[in-house]
Amino acid sequence: MAGVAMGHVNTGPAPLWPTFLVGQDDKPVRVILIDDDAHMQRVVAQELMADSRTLLVGQAAGVKDGRRLIKQHEFDVMLVDVNLNDGQGYTLIEFMKFQRPSAEAIMFSVMESDEQVLRAFEVGATGYLVKHSWFGSYPQAVLQVANGGAYITPHLARRLIQKFDARKASPSHVEEHVTSESRLLSEREKEVLRMVANGYTSAEIAVRLEISTMTVNSHIKNIYRKLHVRTRAQAVQFASLRRLF
Questions:
Q1: Distance set, CA 150 to CA 71, 104, 197 (Å)
Q2: Bridge partners of 152?
Q3: What is the pLDDT of residues 166-223, one digit of tens each?
Q4: Is 44 a residue whose pLDDT tops 90?
Q5: Model confidence over 105-120: pLDDT tens digits?
Q6: How many Å apart are CA 179 and CA 243, to the nearest integer?
Q7: Whole-angstrom Cα distance, residue 11 to residue 7?
Q8: pLDDT digit string (tens) for 157-177?
Q9: Cα–Cα distance, 174 to 172 (Å, whole number)
Q10: What pTM did the predictor assign?
């Protein structure tokens, strides 16, 4: 069933966190959690509640209750399992993107399928986590996507990089992607996209390029429009496959 606001469980001093980033003690990132594994739901909830920068506002165990949660609660990030008791999390990401287009989605699963990861990004996720991974944390992933970045479990990222490297080494791949698409983006847009791919937030890109955050976001919107994508992860994937930078 859909849950209610959970608040925080303070376990110690908050980590140092720059004031220009989203996720401050007085205005934490609001999160909803959807997972049909009761034990895992408790584990993730405890992690989120232990960090003062994240606020768990609701929980659900399935697609039906997840839809209700999305409609009822104001939130910034949704954490959703791939396989739920009455369907798949992909449908909730698509529903969320329609109902709350400004919110971000992170998918997580016990599986490590590359196909699942790519499908999650295709439907609009900006993060993918493997349950029980020794690397990373749920609050860290939430804060990363809330600040304009993308998040993926490190060993999955390594596998995807190796797959892309193998494709680039293929002569047929080179011939396939040497097209006019390389001229779609301006040099500045390529520069911004490279920084997005390296995990920089809009604020960090603005500092490095000595331009305003508004200008950075304008470049990112132009990139979305030119590449016909909806998320940062999709833009990076598209550009990487077509060697646009």
A1: 24, 10, 8
A2: 128
A3: 655 555 544 444 445 556 788 898 889 888 887 788 888 999 999 998 899 888 888 8
A4: yes
A5: 999 998 777 778 888 8
A6: 10
A7: 13
A8: 777 677 666 655 555 544 444
A9: 5
A10: 0.64
Dihedral, CA atoms, 228, 231, 233, 238, nearest 10 degrees?
0
Residue bearing tokens 């008791």:
85
| Distance between CA atoms of residues 185 and 162, nearest Å | 25
AA identity, residue 217: N
What type of residue sits at position 198?
N
CA distance 143 to 27: 12
pLDDT at 74: 95
Position of tokens 């910034």? 76
Cβ(34)–Cβ(81) under 8 Å? yes
Asked if residue 32 lies in contact with residue 96, where contact means CB atoms within 8 angstroms, the answer is no
